[in-house]
TrEMBL record:
Name of the protein this chain belongs to: Glycosyltransferase 2-like domain-containing protein
InterPro entries: Glyco_trans_2-like (IPR001173), Glycosyltransf_2 (IPR050834), Nucleotide-diphossugar_trans (IPR029044)
Glycosyltransferase 2-like domain segment(s): 36-156
Pfam family, one: Glycos_transf_2
Superkingdom assignment: Bacteria
Length: 353
């Protein structure tokens, strides 16, 4: 972990300021840490980081972190921090090598001193009072909730804003049983969560890419979750989770392999968290996941196979899965060229609609 520079908050106390009188002492404002994650996002990092530093509602600890970009993202974050004059304590750091989202999260959570941790991505944009409103919602819950979410505004690659994209009202999910019956729709880019929750369950699997449902699972096993009924993030289209339009069979194979590994990492992390909670949580999770572990394992092994014979043997062996699904996926791997052509045609037809 390499620390860059630290911008200390400016403190200006007026001379002869009158003493503040109060009949009862106020509870101290909890420290909020903003975890700003960036990687290869030089085109958006400056505006996003400046929005991060413009957060209202009191001083925060802000960690501007770059996961070893090669496009100048880290240097932009250094420039933004060096020019900053304000109440927040700003730390700029860069991973010594690219470690991926899961490990990047772990590193920042370990550094954070705050009780409430707010995530920001370098390709999104947080409205100025986002942290203030998330903190107010957490305080209103008696600091009990372990996860606070909000809605987003759809933002295209040019920065033009479109419709509000609502997430689910997380207060309607009470406990893991509700999560297992139906996962809530959440967007990780909106999340604030407690440090205590992360300390309870420990670091994420370094291979985790989608942390959204992991955070919801952890929160609902603890103090619960809630949603601020406002769009507090401008959420950029075409992010890291978007399915690309495949240009050739090799690109499709690489994407499928990467996506399958991400799905397996998420399920592996959920299982580890459930094991910490006990046998009942493990049984609930297994029932919820159903055939998904078999599907992801099958897809990974199909991708690793090198001959059509190996792939047909795998298709015959995974009898837990529907035969038609096994066959279709095997054919995609055996004949990737026609599969890519069909997917590109489907993509063009969707764009026309």
């Amino acid at each position: 972990m390499a620390l860059g520079l630290i911008a200390r908050p400016d403190v200006h106390a007026p001379e002869n300021a009158p003493a503040r009188m109060s009949s009862a002492p106020e509870a101290p404002r909890p420290l909020v840490t903003i975890l700003f994650l960036a990687y290869q996002q030089a085109q958006w990092a400056r505006a996003s980081a400046e929005a991060c530093l413009a957060q209202t509602g009191g001083p925060c600890e802000i960690i501007l972190s770059d996961d070893h970009s090669s496009d100048g993202t880290f240097e932009i974050l250094q420039q933004v921090a060096a020019a900053y004059r304000g109440p927040h304590r700003v730390i700029v750091r860069q991973s010594p090598q690219n470690v991926g989202i899961g490990r990047h999260y772990n590193d920042l959570v370990a550094l954070a001193q705050g009780e409430l941790l707010v995530t920001m991505a370098a390709d999104d944009f947080s409205v100025p009072d986002r942290v203030e409103r998330l903190l107010a919602a957490w305080e209103a819950s008696g600091r009990r909730a372990d996860l606070i979410a909000s809605h987003v505004i759809d933002m295209d690659t040019e920065g033009v804003l479109h419709d509000v994209m609502p997430v689910d009202d997380l207060s309607r999910w009470q406990g893991l049983q509700a999560w297992a019956e139906k996962r809530p729709y959440v967007i990780g880019a909106t999340h604030a969560f407690t440090k205590r929750m992360m300390e309870r369950f420990g670091p994420l699997d370094p291979e985790v890419f989608y942390e959204d449902q992991i955070m919801a699972f952890r929160a609902l096993a603890g103090g619960g979750a809630l949603t601020v009924d406002a769009a507090l993030v401008h959420y950029r289209r075409g992010g890291t989770s978007r399915r690309p339009t495949f240009q050739d069979p090799e690109q499709m194979k690489r994407w499928t392999r990467r996506q399958t590994l991400r799905e397996l990492a998420e399920m592996r992390q959920l299982h580890r968290d459930a094991e910490q909670l006990g046998p009942q949580a493990v049984a609930l999770l297994r029932q919820h996941l159903g055939l998904n572990p078999y599907r992801s394992d099958y897809m990974f092994r199909l991708g690793e196979a090198t001959t059509a014979a190996e792939r047909w043997a795998l298709a015959r062996s995974y009898r837990e899965l529907p035969w038609w699904w096994r066959t279709r996926k095997a054919l995609h791997q055996i004949f990737p060229g026609p599969t890519v052509a069909i997917k590109r045609l489907q993509s063009r037809l969707r764009r026309r609609d």
